[in-house]
TrEMBL record:
<dbReference type="GO" id="GO:0004523">
    <property type="term" value="F:RNA-DNA hybrid ribonuclease activity"/>
</dbReference>
<dbReference type="InterPro" id="IPR012337">
    <property type="entry name" value="RNaseH-like_sf"/>
</dbReference>
<dbReference type="Pfam" id="PF00075">
    <property type="entry name" value="RNase_H"/>
</dbReference>
<feature type="domain" description="RNase H type-1">
    <location>
        <begin position="316"/>
        <end position="459"/>
    </location>
</feature>
<protein>
    <recommendedName>
        <fullName>RNase H type-1 domain-containing protein</fullName>
    </recommendedName>
</protein>
<dbReference type="InterPro" id="IPR036397">
    <property type="entry name" value="RNaseH_sf"/>
</dbReference>
<dbReference type="GO" id="GO:0003676">
    <property type="term" value="F:nucleic acid binding"/>
</dbReference>
<dbReference type="InterPro" id="IPR002156">
    <property type="entry name" value="RNaseH_domain"/>
</dbReference>
Length: 743
């Protein structure tokens, strides 16, 4: 998901225990990622801390890791070899190419071992006892430090003699409760926590462990004269009870293994913010439910004060009526949405509100924002009637409480997070809400007033955002680029993102350099180009004619028409030389030459002269505007204007070149917009026009070329069977050569 800049954000805080750095983060780029995850799961390995040394600088050898696993059989897994190849600096000592910083958490309740100066020496230690919580054993680990190591550019580690807690009660303490009994320790005779070191190599059966110094706490321990029949002397007694020590080490463990959250700044402090607001309004006069909803859900803070004032004004009304409207302006590359509403229960109060919003522009979202901001100011337990001209909002609102609208289907709604916020506001304020349809632009003065407010609101730069992390019914949401909330069907949206990224890779191909250059100069209308590639003017959804038509468009747009250079590349022994162009006989035939061939230029000139008149007739017959207002977009259009003064090559006219390659130039769509022809009619007229144009181009250029290509095959005794036999023989030869290499 990180590759596509997608990330799930959660409305609740959660802590990851057992480590901070999952192994999966270091395997994400492998094509065997899911197989590696399955292997790690079977081995109970989740965090990088489990497979590196205690100082966090070296990857452990697989033999050492295997000793700690429940199942010690099997060969070295692929994920371990992948880590060695990608995160290791030195293959001899398995030094990591990064340092995992130790978690230096200040815990005033405990004391940690003292940090010694960095040096190459090992310092021997006597009579210092430590304890820490081990998630692998789910128990407290006790130990007596025997040495400290703090090498240069390393984290300090300690090696300690492992002691275990004696769970049996001594006979002298039978009258004490379990929590009050003293904690006695005895030497561990060996366990799976033991690691290879100089102490464990000796013959005595004593267990030694190496750990990071700052992951342990110091405890007070003294020697005891008590004896336990089933355990070997000597015995030691802790000053504190086992339950107290366990509580301390668990708290310390949680502090060290919890992702830290940044502290709120002073501007986010609710006490300071309330004090600032008190300078402008008496907050106690605003209902606490409205006040909390506005402060928690509405952003930016500049919108809080006007909403507080409106909520204060409406506090005396139990039957509330609004007229709402939204505005969407797509005149430029940055669509603007505005919303506005007017309180109509008592017009003399002159209560109205407007503003703007961004991201996922649609008229429905603008209308929905108007409804949301109106509801958030309503008095609790009131009856609310909202008059709107958006049938889409009314239909969706009526479905919100339907049992058929499951949680999964709800997430597929457009603006689902905003609808969830509307539900949350209604349930919190216990409102009785009904939406009533009014006809748009029907002369209703109240609806027209709301429409004017929405258009004025679109000019505002205080864009309304909803802080959905405060909605308990919205446990998580998906974000793009860490800022934009995916407020659409997640599957369709992610598919669109991946399609755009795949298209970017396609456009970066070296054969499409010229098309990419024209695209960066905004010469191509991608909306209509996409429609053109999907366009089917034939009566059947699947037929041979349609297949050929699609094949022509794809091969033409990607420079993959079967010209002589490509045929020679694919069948070098069958077509031995690059033959000259079948149309001009002057240059070697390639895809690039085909659309710059001087003969092609002379062929298409009368075609474009004929279609210029047809194009002009189509627009003038459908437009209700004055011809003089859009005449220049037709007469001065470079797609047709070149016929009066032909260029030396087609590439000199980028718009014409794009059209011949089956990409729709913006100059071809702009005249429809200038003539104020609706998009629905434009799609129908323009796609039919382009189909007729390309059909004639295909007939006059490619069919003529295909006729000469057939004559060439006849002269050289090449037929369809020749190509089939060539491919078969080539496959057999390649198989024979690979068999010989293997032998």
């Amino acid at each position: 998901m990180h590759h596509y800049k997608l990330e799930f954000k959660f409305s609740f805080k959660f802590n990851t225990k057992g480590g901070l750095y999952p192994i999966s983060a270091y395997l994400i780029r492998s094509n065997q990622f899911f197989n590696f995850i399955k292997s790690l799961k079977n081995k109970d390995l989740f965090y990088i801390n489990q497979i590196i040394t205690a100082d966090g600088l070296f990857l452990r050898d697989w033999k050492d890791i295997k000793k700690l696993l429940p199942n010690k059989k099997g060969r070295t897994p692929g994920w371990y070899q992948y880590l060695k190849d990608n995160i290791i600096l030195n293959q001899n000592n398995l030094r990591l190419n990064f340092d995992l910083p130790p978690t230096n958490i200040h815990n005033p309740l405990v004391t940690r071992p003292k940090i010694i100066p960095q040096s190459t020496n090992i310092k021997r230690i006597k009579n210092i006892w430590i304890a820490y919580w081990c998630p692998r054993t789910n128990d407290v680990i006790f130990g007596r430090i025997v040495e400290k190591q703090h090498f240069y550019n390393h984290h300090q580690t300690i090696t300690f003699e492992h002691f275990t807690h004696i769970t049996d009660s001594h006979s002298s303490h039978n009258n004490l409760t379990p929590r009050s009994r003293p904690t006695y320790l005895t030497k561990c005779t060996g366990c799976n926590l033991s690691e290879p070191n100089t102490f464990n190599s000796n013959t005595n059966s004593t267990c030694y462990i190496t750990s990071l110094s700052n992951s342990t706490i110091i405890i007070n321990v003294s020697k005891s004269n008590k004896t336990f029949q089933q355990y070997r002397k000597p015995f030691y007694k802790c000053v504190k009870q086992y339950s107290t020590i366990k509580q301390n080490v668990i708290i310390d463990y949680n502090l060290r293994n919890t992702r830290s959250h940044s502290n709120p700044t002073l501007s986010e402090d609710p006490i300071i913010y309330r004090t600032q607001l008190e300078n402008f309004i008496d907050l106690d006069s605003v209902n606490i439910l409205n006040r909390n909803l506005i402060t928690q859900l509405i952003s930016p803070d500049t919108l809080h004060l006007p909403l507080f004032n409106i909520s204060k004004q409406l506090s005396t009304y139990n039957n509330i009526e609004f007229y709402t409207d939204g505005s969407l302006n797509r005149d430029d590359d940055f669509p603007k949405m505005g919303y506005g509403w007017i309180f109509t229960t008592n017009l003399s109060d002159n209560v109205k509100f407007s503003g703007s919003c961004k991201d996922w522009p649609s008229s429905s979202k603008a209308e929905l924002m108007a409804i949301l901001t109106a509801l958030i100011t309503c008095t609790p337990n009131s009856k609310v009637q909202i008059y709107t001209d958006s049938a889409s909002c009314i239909d969706t609102f009526n479905k919100l409480n339907s049992p058929k609208l499951t949680a999964r289907r709800f997430q597929k709604l457009n603006n689902c997070t905003i609808w969830n916020t509307v539900k949350y506001i209604i349930n919190t304020l216990k409102l009785n809400v009904s939406l009533i349809k009014v006809k748009a632009h029907s002369g209703n003065p109240l609806n027209d007033a709301a429409d004017m407010l929405a258009k004025e609101g679109s000019l505002s730069t205080d864009y309304l955002n909803i802080k959905i992390q405060h909605i308990n019914t919205q446990s998580y949401h998906l974000t793009f680029n860490d800022t934009i909330i995916i407020d659409r069907n997640i599957r369709k949206t992610t598919k669109r993102i991946t399609n755009f990224q795949n298209f970017q890779k396609h456009l970066s191909h070296n054969q499409l350099d010229r098309i990419k250059h024209h695209a960066l100069n905004n010469l191509i209308d991608w909306e209509y180009s996409q429609l053109w590639f999907k366009y089917n003017s034939f009566s059947k959804p699947t037929c041979e004619q349609y297949t050929k038509h699609v094949s022509w468009k794809i091969k033409c747009s990607s420079n993959n028409l079967p010209t002589m250079d490509i045929l020679n590349r694919n069948y070098p022994d069958l077509i031995k030389e690059n033959e000259p162009c079948f149309l001009c006989s002057l240059h070697i035939e390639t895809n690039d030459h085909l659309w710059n061939c001087p003969q092609v230029l002379s062929i298409i000139k009368p075609i474009f002269e004929k279609f210029y008149e047809k194009f002009k007739t189509i627009i003038t017959s459908e437009s209700n505007s004055v011809y003089a207002l859009y005449s220049d977009s037709i007469t001065q259009n470079p797609i047709f204007k070149w016929t009066k003064k032909p260029p030396t090559q087609i590439a000199d006219i980028p718009e014409l070149y794009c059209l011949l390659r089956n990409f729709i130039p913006t100059n071809l769509t702009y005249p429809f917009k200038a003539a104020k022809i609706s998009k629905t009619i434009t799609k129908k007229l323009l796609l039919n026009f382009i189909f007729d144009l390309h059909r004639e181009l295909y007939e006059k250029i490619w069919k003529v070329r295909a006729t000469k290509w057939k004559q060439y095959k006849k002269d050289h005794d090449i037929n369809k069977k020749s190509f089939v036999n060539y491919r078969r023989n080539r496959q057999q030869n390649s198989h024979h050569n690979s068999t010989q290499r293997n032998n």
